[in-house]
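Our working data are protein records whose layout never changes between entries. Instead of coordinates, the fold is spelled out as a row of discrete tokens. Here is such a record, shown just as it appears in the course material:
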Amino acid sequence: MSIIFTPPINLAALEEGIGCCCFGAVDKKTLRKNLNTPSKYIIDLVVALGYPEERSLIESFKDSFGYWKDGKGILHVPKRELKGVLHRNMVNK
């Protein structure tokens, strides 16, 4: 079973106007070597942080997850609502 959650660092970054993204598609062996990370630690995700060069607006998912820019250059990012992805003691069918 996989559990996906938003690390507190993402929420703190957002409050400070810092963009962030968690991803797991990294060369973990090279990362461990470069950061001299002891083997007792599991590298599961990497969090990239930075100040965004463009403004984005998260909006409710309607028909597509496609991102798009409006006439003012604002990037619109459709996302599912929490109630649509968070389930407790059941599977949403």
